[in-house]
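Progress against Task 2.4 (sequence-to-structure conversion) is shown through the following example record, which the project officer requested during the mid-term review.
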Amino acid sequence: MKLQHAPAYGPFAAAFLLAGPLLAAAKTAPRVETKHDEKAGKLVVMIDGKQALLYRYGDGVDLPYYVPHSPSGKPMTVVRTNPYPHHRSFWFADRVQRAGQRVGKFYNALYSRADKKDPNSPFNDRIRHVRLEPPRVTPGRVALVKKLLWEIDRKTPILDETRRLTVTALGGGEYLMDVTFTVTASYGDVAFVSDAVHYAWPYLRMTTAFSVKGGGTMTNSEGGVNQKGTHGKVATWVDYSNTIGGVAEGLAVFSHTDNKHPHAWLTRDYGTFGPRRISARSGKRFTLEKGASLSRRIGVLVHRGDVRTGKVAQRYAAYVRPAAGGEAQR
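Structure tokens generated for the chain above:
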């Protein structure tokens, strides 16, 4: 089952392209709103009064992360689990070294507390949420811009990061996240020293219920199935789906054509998966020069049904096809 791929288009068009045909028959777009508790470090995106997406950050958090909920309200990713308690639901991190500084092990930030015996001790390696721009809410859609800082030893900056996230309601509790992670070497040259085994860009860790080990199925754009058929394989998307309590739902990650292709994916039957970088920068040291930026753009589709009935392939094509006028052109 190899799928057709489509060319890229301008920023933020995906939400309208994917939502348009699906919402055409609806009288009104689903209601999208945000609830933000800055003191608690929580931002929730609500669709028609139900929690769709949780964003967590704050002093007690090693790195900011997201928790997507299924159309029926189930958390789809796990915040902390054993083994691998450093897996953080849906997160973005790496192992990097600014010139003249030690290696920042942000992927393993959980283990970097200053006092290993104190669970409230500060992290020596941390991705810190700096600020959230005012959310921009339009019918059926919310756009969020967040500023973050990758820092070591609680005072030494390594990378600036900007995250641009658009959540578009598709009806029936389904939604699309269109997110771009951009890191900038604002403070000096930064070497990426990820090993070839343990990184994805970004990562997701599905709950056991949605994982292959929990009875779910993982499928990629080329027809590969589960870890054996998808790990280390080139693809443009990967989907995790399962039927739980008689309800079939899934989550697909789309690699946008803004990214360099072809690239492989990290996948695990126990639930972790995500896209890698192109082979020249996959598990191989490279340097981002001072002032330069590096981005990764992905879509996350939360859908009803499995990979086929959820129309994942068709929705990927809608996500990456060229804008055809209207609001999507901006």
